[in-house]
Amino acid sequence: MKRLLTTVAAVSVLLPALAVANPATLNHPGRLLASNCFQCHGTDGYGMEHLAGESINEIADELAEMQFESARKDIMAVHAQAYTAEEITLIADYFSKQPK
């Protein structure tokens, strides 16, 4: 009985999150990488700085530029410098596929 109640409680917490999630990107390979961005940009790209629906090239180019700005020491530059070109493309693709 205790296990059943724990399962029901866990499912009730997860259901609202799944209801608002974009089904097209639930299994997207960039979703986990983009989770580092969720604090500021939100899980759907609607945080402080909107990324949802922006072009993949625009997002990827911006991150790539940040990688090479050595004077820049803010959180975006630190994150960008940690990603490979392939990871940046996956993150950009994930956010570009969120509805605008």
Can you describe what's shown?
The chain has 100 residues and is mostly helical. Helices cover 59% and strands 0% of the residues. The chain contains six helices and no strands. The chain has helices at residues 2-20, 31-34, 38-41, 56-67, 75-82, 85-96. Helix 4 (56-67) crosses helix 5. Residues 10-19 have low confidence and may be disordered. Keywords: Heme, Iron, Metal-binding, Signal. Residues 1-21 form the signal peptide. Residues 17-99 form the Cytochrome c domain. InterPro entries: Cyt_c-like_dom (IPR009056), Cyt_c-like_dom_sf (IPR036909).
What's the main sheet like?
none
The H/E string reads HHHHHH
Helix content: 55-70%
Query: Low-confidence parts lasting 5 or more residues at pLDDT below 50?
Result: 10-19
What is the CA-CA span between the terminal residues? 44 Å
Reading off the top of the CATH hierarchy, the class is best stated as Mainly Alpha
Overall tally of domains: 1
Shape descriptor reads globular
Strand content: under 5%
Extended strand count: 0
Instruction: Using the 3D structure, state the CATH architecture.
Output: Orthogonal Bundle
Overall residue-averaged pLDDT value: 79
Radius of gyration: 16 Å
Tell me briefly what this model is.
This protein has 100 residues and is mainly α. The protein has helices at 2-20, 31-34, 38-41, 56-67, 75-82, 85-96. Helix 4 crosses helix 5.
